[in-house]
Sequence to fold (176 residues):
Amino acid sequence: MTHNILLAGFGGQGILFVGKILAYTGMIDNKEVSWLPSYGPEMRGGTANCSVCLGDEPIGSPLVLNPDCLIVMNNPSFDKFIDAVAPGGTAIVNSTLVDRTSARTDITIKYVPATQLANDNGLQTLGNMIMLGALLKLVPLTSMETVDMALKKVVPAAKEWLIPKNEEALRLGMEQ
Fold:
């Protein structure tokens, strides 16, 4: 089985970081993996999205046009990608920053106030990890043990003190 995952938001929300974690989980689980980041020229605040494919067979294209899993962190990303989700797919929406809903009934949509939850729980800037936890609760892409291993690979040694906070944010997301 192949999972085509699209993560979208603006620069500074950790979109590429979550994509990298998912890619590493695939490598740890001996899956075929592709990770394709895309971002605007701005350092922060510009568009950012990331296509991740995890599969049991070779990946034909790294570009995800019709994701079966979507994480959207802001209104422009919601507007651009919600209708592209494949029927039967799953969308996780950051309802703190997305002020609209979708009328689609052919996909599972979970609205998670990730930015607000992060701020309320002393996890500023970790709304992305809350969103990942919410996705992993609905779609068993990998085990939490594998995610923990991937975190340790992706987080640089100089910031390894942030790993427990990231794990806390993941658990918070899984509780939503």
Notes: Residues 2-174 form a domain with the Pyruvate-ferredoxin Oxidoreductase; domain 3 fold (CATH 3.40.920.10). The radius of gyration is 15 Å.
